[in-house]
Design goal:
With 345 residues, this protein is an alpha/beta fold.
């Protein structure tokens, strides 16, 4: 069912993105060592990884980046657990599906040289192991890059499939343009998942409602798309509220829930920066505008002249964390809900 709100685990329930799915399958068949799926939030990255995870035969491990404190130790330990026990494991959770993380050995603080060598030998003897890392941007990018480089060079039986929504942070992990980066020169498969265009969004909602035998007008669907854009996560939530829960005020409900969620994400970002008002003002005015237009709007709303370098740095930081995007020479919010979220802070 397209409108199920948990991450998809079967390709028949996964709309669009068949090219990305096919590219991952081909990369796995070729034996690629690092596959990175990137894209702004709520474009279906977790579902895509979850489908591949369920389809793979053999030893595999799923790691939620949000529970990892020390990538080098924690991820190494998780892979070792799978190699030692000879069975697949999930560490953390796959979005809303809670998995216990007790007694899984993710907190090894000291590993002796002999123990480390023994663990490495155990991993080598275990054969092929697929390591899925969701929410990779939540980890220390330098540590994760070092870990990927280490496995790439020393343990070729390990394949990493990672996903991340804060594109700039994930770029730090991959570091393909930095000659001093740990992964420089290594081949990495990169796939970017983008929002649905208007035609595809219309098709998705129409097919989803048809699956449930729910009648809905084209005008209503068009109204939903104009409000939620082509982010499949929000469209799915709308379909669930409207057709499964029979909520006639589904759009208002989704916008309310979505704004609260995005506000939490945005607040976590703002807690790490100075001059929060500047960042919020940029987001409120980034409605498909050029740098000059955005600067004029921000200066007007802030009632003072913002140093151009300060403005540029703030814009770049918002883009790095995927709260802002640039198409051509225009800046815009990649998620329409971001505007509503700014007024909750």
């Amino acid at each position: 069912m397209y409108f199920s709100i948990e991450p998809k685990s079967n390709i028949k329930d996964f709309f669009n993105y068949r090219r990305e799915y096919g590219e991952i399958k081909k990369a796995l068949k070729r034996g690629e060592k690092v596959i990175a799926v990137i894209g702004v939030r709520r474009t279906g990255k977790t579902s895509l990884l979850n489908i591949i995870y369920h389809e793979i035969n053999g030893k595999k491990v799923w790691i939620d980046g949000r529970i990892v404190c020390d990538p080098k130790k924690d991820i190494f330990s998780a892979i070792y657990e799978v190699a030692k026990e000879g069975r697949s494991k999930i560490f953390g959770k796959i979005e809303s599906i809670s998995i216990s993380v007790s007694h899984i050995g993710l907190r090894i603080r000291k590993i002796s040289r002999n123990s480390f060598v023994n663990m490495e030998n155990t991993i080598t003897r275990a054969g092929k192991i697929y390591v899925f890392i969701d929410e990779a941007q939540k980890m220390d990018p330098k540590q994760l890059a070092n870990l990927l480089s280490y496995f790439y060079d020393r343990l070729p039986n390990i394949t990493f499939i990672i996903s991340g929504s804060e594109i700039g942070v994930v770029e730090d992990v991959l570091g393909e343009k930095d000659s001093k980066h740990p992964l420089f020169g290594r081949h990495i498969v990169r796939l970017e998942m983008k929002r649905l265009d208007e035609e595809k969004a219309m098709e998705y909602l129409t097919l989803g409602f048809d699956q449930l035998g729910f009648k809905i007008s084209d005008d209503e669907i068009e109204s939903v798309i104009s409000e939620l854009d082509g982010l499949i996560g929000w469209l799915t939530l709308y379909g669930y509220e409207r057709a499964v829960l029979k909520n006639k005020n589904a759009l208002e409900r989704v916008k309310e829930l979505a704004a609260q969620l995005v506000a939490t994400e945005l607040q976590n970002f703002l807690d790490r920066v100075k001059n929060k008002k500047l960042y919020l003002t940029i987001l409120r005015n980034a409605n498909n505008v050029t740098w000059s237009q955005l600067s004029a709007y921000v200066n007007k709303d802030m009632r003072k002249q913002i140093n151009p370098n300060t403005l540029t740095q703030a814009i770049e930081k918002l883009m790095r964390y995927s709260f802002l995007a640039k198409e051509g020479n225009k800046y815009l919010r990649p998620d329409p809900i971001i505007l509503d979220a700014t007024f909750l802070l």
